[in-house]
Amino acid sequence: MEAPAAPHNPVETELTVTSPEQMRELGLKLAKLLRAGDLVMLSGELGAGKTTLTRGLGEGLGVRGAVTSPTFVIARVHPSLGDGPPLVHVDAYRLGGGLDEMEDLDLDVSLPDSVIVVEWGEGKVEELTEDRLQVWIHRAVGDTTDEVRQVTLTGLGERWAGVDLGALSA
Q1: DSSP 3-state of 17
Q2: How confident is the model over 70-119, as pLDDT tens digits?
Q3: Residues 130-153: tens digit of each pLDDT
Q4: What's the predicted TM-score (pTM) here?
Q5: Which among 71, 128, 142, 149 is most buried, taking Cβ atoms within 10 Å?
Q6: 133: which strand partners?
Q7: Strands 149-156, 11-17: parallel, antiparallel or unpaired by DSSP?
Q8: Separation CA 96–CA 134 (nearest Å)
């Protein structure tokens, strides 16, 4: 009997973003690390920059359609304009808890072929996969401008074990 595989330690990096344009540029850089099957969970208060980051991801992935907040439609699919994966952008803010309520979105069916970005997904989509990228966007406190954000990216699972998230700060 083989021993179970040891869990991979999370891969983590922290960045400071000082403008909406830098947040979009972070999305562009992050898109280069993403591939079909990736789940990205975005967390942060209203107005933190989650949709701005996703807009950059969409540009970097080369998908069709303007990336806007899907708050009222819950999920929006942006097909690839090239040979890359489509982007599925989900806003789980208005949904209750648990994957049961999310099942109607068929995210488990879309995941192998898409990059799925979920805003407000904590406690709702973790069951989709052990491999995910958690992005926390915090507004800086103290004597700073309102545009400054601290972004913490944590790669969980085997998928992210060898990924250099620190390269995003370059």
Answers
A1: strand
A2: 766 678 888 999 999 999 998 887 776 555 556 666 676 677 899 999 99
A3: 899 999 999 866 555 578 899 999
A4: 0.85
A5: 149
A6: 40, 155
A7: antiparallel
A8: 20
